[in-house]
Amino acid sequence: MSHTTTPFSFAQALVSWQRTHGRHDLPWQNTTDAYRIWLSEVMLQQTQVVTVMDYYAKFLARFPDVQSLARAEHDDVMSLWTGLGYYSRARNLHACAKAVVADFGGEFPRTPEQLITLKGIGASTAAAIAVFAYGYPAAILDGNVKRIIARVHGIRTPASAATDKIMWQHANELLVTANDAKKLKLTHAAALRAYTQGLMDLGASLCARRKPQCDICPMQTNCYARIHHLTDDIPPAKVRKVSPEFDVNLYIYQHAGRVWLEKRPSKGIWAGLYSFPEQPRLDVNVNASIDANQDKKDKTNAPRIRHVLTHRILHLQPHIFQLTASQAHGLEDAENAEHGGWFDVDDLKGVGLPKPILGIIEQVLGSID
DNA sequence: AAAGCGGGGCT
DNA sequence: AGCCCAGCTTT
């Protein structure tokens, strides 16, 4: 028996804390189904738990397993992502499901090295899937973990690739070991699951960005930021550039209870979703663009919508037209028909829509009834 | 290495 | 009104 003090174990303290104070009843917990865990991890990328809840339930009800998702129509998948944002996630999700079925016999691979080869799965998501589905030892590094590591180790360099490299080293060094598990009287797999969940839970609660509750934190005596009263300064605030603003005209063509929508290009904002025909609105051009539609009757001055994205601010000006039968028919010709079509406003299931476009459709629906 | 990519919750 | 969120992909 040694008389020296047992060194503080971050991993053991975290696992113990998670088991008594962490979350245990989230919809994607208490399962080892890699499909469910993968779906939750992708939805949770840059998205808060409370936001994901509803989308997760509806997605699972529609596509309960990887085979059903792999068989799905792409637009059907996109429609379940309407409003959730970062739509490349949905496109990659579908491609990933197809790859799992085609290349892995419908079973998600078990190692981070293999998981990371799949679309939409990066290093952190691969590790989370490997831990939660298979009890495989791998370190995650999400926003929560970065904040915890920055505070515990006093890392004050701004966010960058170089800082991430340091963070990954710490994340791997801190990971709960087989010996830790033994001390905790847990299997290594159980300890890994509690540890990984514990990082997320601690970052989402006590070690929040603002007003961390250090006085009840299991790491309080071993945390650089706490000891030096620097939790407000670590991690350092990110410098954010001013978002450029864009004015956009939206052309809403209606006929016989249907609305004309066009599939957006595969790159850029809202890639692959359906939206109204649009054109940038240069002030000098506003009248010209309206004039170009003067054969149709612009019956609105619908209010302009301000829509904020991460890197830009959009001012969307809807122009609503009720088309005659011949005008409506005219739209179907030309090359428009390749990526556009008439959609029943009462049945937009299976159509992926950007949030503000969905909002406009709902508003227009209400106003014409 | 830096930029692009949504939308919402919270203060 | 600004910051951040169970990040990944493209340039």
Task: Give a structural overview.
This protein starts with 9 loop residues before the first helix and ends with a helix. It has two domains: 10-139 and 175-205, Hypothetical protein, domain 2 (Endonuclease III, domain 1), CATH 1.10.340; 245-368, Nucleoside Triphosphate Pyrophosphohydrolase (Alpha-Beta Complex), CATH 3.90.79.10. A hairpin with a 4-residue loop joins strand 5 (305-308) and strand 6. It is built from 17 helices and seven strands. It is elongated, with a radius of gyration of 25 Å. Strands 1, 2, 3, 4, 5, 6 and 7 form a seven-stranded mixed sheet that branches. The protein is an alpha+beta fold and 369 residues long. The protein has helices at 10-21, 34-43, 49-62, 66-71, 74-79, 88-104, 112-115, 123-134, 143-153, 161-174, 178-183, 188-204, 224-227, 286-291, 325-332, 336-339, 355-368; strands spanning 245-255, 258-263, 274-275, 278-280, 305-308, 313-322, 340-344. The structure holds a DNA duplex (11 and 11 nucleotides).
